[in-house]
Amino acid sequence: MTRALKTTYVLVILALLLAPLVIVAAVSLNGPQSLRFPPVDPSLRWYGELFRQSEWLVPLRHSLVIAACAAALAVAIALPLALYVWERRGIAARALTGMGLAPFALPPVISALGFMIFWMTLGGYGRIYATIISHGIFLVTLPLVTISLGLKGIDRSLIEAARVMGAGRWGVFRTVILPLLIPYMVSGYAFAFVLSLNEYIIAYMVAGFTVETLPIKIFNALRYGYTPILAVVSVIFAALSALIFGLIGRFGNLPRLLGAERSQHD
């Protein structure tokens, strides 16, 4: 009986989580220009419309460029920061860790307001590089956490062995540390990419309508009427996120990357 209740409970939770996605996916198949459920005259028409209309393609390109560059910037910042904290102890290391985790500890609107004032002061407001840098700094927490988890799992005896064999500081990093960290860097990049792709508040307050991303375009489109393209974009976002995390789960240790599994060296 207990097992049946647990199974029922899990199924109910899964149904509640999947219901919005199923409804949005069904709405995207509407033939007429309306958001109806169940769909009327099911068709893939709006999936083709998304890639034929420049008013949607430009925000899509902006979102992909910003997400790809911002995720790379976040990893580039997180890697040396995580290495410094791993190699050293003390107040400075703890302070740097706190700074790296701070963006996610603050409400996004506060960070967005700070970025907006900063870029307006420097004259970068409304530029795509301002959004990239803002997202990169805001999302640095994600690769910082994954890379730090990877460093915790490294057996320091490997490093000592490399040094005994004559490897210098750079040689140890290149031949021992970096190969072990690559899965964690890739996962941190993927997490930052997905969140940047879906981020709205910072992108809106830093660039406004000058650099329109897909989330901003969705909110703008809602003011002029409802179209199944809104649902199509949501489906694509969800599918892309599922694909990225699915690949991480398939080729990497997702529980370990998320910190849910302790390493043998902890």
Describe this structure as you would to a colleague.
The longest helix is centred in the first third of the chain and has 34 residues, at 54-87. With 266 residues, this protein is mainly α. The protein has helices spanning 2-27, 45-50, 54-87, 91-105, 108-122, 128-138, 141-152, 156-164, 169-198, 201-207, 214-221, 228-251, 254-257. It has one domain: MetI-like fold (Orthogonal Bundle). The protein starts with a helix and ends in a 9-residue tail after the last helix. The chain is built from 13 helices and no strands. Helix content is 76%, strand content 0%.
Primary descriptors:
266 residues, mainly alpha, MetI-like fold
Largest sheet: none
Q: Number of helix segments?
A: 13
Percent of residues in helices comes to over 70%
End-to-end separation in angstroms reads 38 Å
Shape: globular
Total count of domains: 1
- The count of strands amounts to 0
Low-confidence stretches: none
Determine and state the CATH class: Mainly Alpha
Report the portion of residues in β strands: under 5%
**What's the overall average pLDDT, rounded?**
80
Compute the gyration radius: what is it?
A: 22 Å
Spell out the helices and strands N to C. Answer: HHHHHHHHHHHHH
- The helix-and-strand class reads mainly alpha
User: What's the CATH architecture name?
Assistant: Orthogonal Bundle
Secondary structure elements and their pairing?
Blueprint: H1 2-27, H2 45-50, H3 54-87, H4 91-105, H5 108-122, H6 128-138, H7 141-152, H8 156-164, H9 169-198, H10 201-207, H11 214-221, H12 228-251, H13 254-257
